[in-house]
Amino acid sequence: METKPELNNEVITSSVSKTKKVKKQPILIIEDDDKCEVKSITDICENIELIDINFKKCVKGYHLINSSSINETIWEDINAIIFSSLGINIYSKSDGSHSSGMDINCSLGRISNKSAKYSNNKKSIDISSYRLTTVCSEKKCGTPSEIIEEINKRKNFDYYSFIVRDETDKENISYDWLLIPSNYLILDPSSYAWEPTIGKRGKNKDAQVGWNTNEINGCKMSITFSMSSQLWIHIEMTEEIKKFIVASAVVENKPKYNYIDLLDKLTNI
Question: What's the number of CA atoms in the CB half-sphere (13 Å) around residue 268?
Answer without folding.
Answer: 0
